[in-house]
Amino acid sequence: MKPLTVCAALRVEARALRRGLRAASIPDAQVRVVRTGYGPARAAASAASIAASARGASRPGLAEPGPGMLAVGGVGGALSADLRVGDVVVASRVSDGTVTVECASAPLLAGELRRAGLRVTTGPVATVDRLVRKGEHATLAATGAIAVDMESAPLLAAAAGGPAVVVRAISDTPAHPIVSPGTITGGIAALRSLRQAAPALARWAAAVGPRQVLLASPRSFCAGVERAIEIVELALEQHGAPVYVRKQIVHNATVVADLERAGAIFVDELSEVPDGANVVFSAHGVSPDVRAEAARRNLATVDATCPLVAKVHAEARRFAADGYLVALIGHAGHEEVEGTLGEAPASMALVESVADVARLRPADSGKVAYLMQTTLAADEASGIVDAIGDRFPAATGPGTDDICYATTNRQHAVRAIAAESDLVLVAGSANSSNSQRLVETAERAGTKAYLVDGPEDIQLDWLAGTSTVGIAAGASAPPAIVGQIVTALAGLGEVQTKDVVVATESVQFGLPKELRQRAGN
Ligand code: SF4
Hints:
single chain; alpha/beta; 5-stranded mixed barrel; elongated
């Protein structure tokens, strides 16, 4: 592997970086810290010399250097009031007003630094040609930049379009400018952060390389999730904020944060909802007790339960009314399971494993039925169904599969990419059952797989040595997250994407009647 060149303008910055690398036992042969000098003119000269030496070392006879990899590390000034001395800024883009360089892998490095215990913000960095004076911060911040330095833009020319990152540890802020009594303390705090950040640069370099990315298709939102999100958006449009939502509308942190910003308030129980408020029930469904409580309190409710979950509730009621003991195959504590069990608590038993089947005690062994959580792994559930059939040969199941089309398709798709991938990344939140099942499905296919809420959750060590990365996304994960992951990987080297399509989906569910009438469709 070629060594990473880390450019540091000042001697103290170079020393802090070297100390951090030495403390992590990273050899010079892996990461080389180069002192490049103060200000844009020295930075430009150093960039030319780094590029010339790369050309001489690896591409003799070429007039221009090919893409390399480059990191810039040093202290910088904050433009955003949210930044504090000692914080670390990872540049998403660097511009001096003439040249703009994108640093697409910034979220990957930012996540790594956060896990190392640093306070990290990602955003644009401005390179200027002199120290920022009092009163000039606001003008620079108006360009969108969150931090400022004097070297990054010209230095990044040495990367010649190859992977590049910029890490600036904040030494001064608009409230404590560079020439102020706090200068020394600010500088010490920034250099400490820089030292702490240095080892992550070596991990970033080890992850650099071209990759093929296999995109599992179908992926991301299913019809039930799209409908549930639209229901909250329409409720906000029709009633105004706040609209209360019992439990997370779907199990995804990004979706929940976006709706919170729009005015939704997520609560765990109806007791947290004020009298007279509007409440949406989540896509996972609720038990009859919850509906009864809402009616008792005259809350205006809209039900976003996915119709495929509602179908399982109806089956539970029907089997229970016919005198069956209903074994619900699912995971304890999941909201969907709690809602379904609540339909006929006296006639239902949760079965999480084959061992649980032995504990079933039906009054009549000829009257046993089974149902399933909609987001189970098909192979896992079929083993339990077989065990129920072995113990109760007359056991009966649902008319059509309870594991929904979206879960099934996404599991087939992740299995298809896992076979070809060195690593599978599944976009989804930790509390998303269907996303977790995708991770398990990929791992059962023999490929290491990880669940990530976004690119910042990807650990650089996972990527080192991989040439084919598969990406899948759970039914509650926004499609944009997959795009963000691909963009971040492209910041590490050339990426070729390929869609691996195992099914096409055209399922759509109508809106609840109360919203449809008001929306006029
Ligand atoms: S995963 Fe299946 S059951 Fe759950 S919301 Fe989507 S379509 Fe409905």
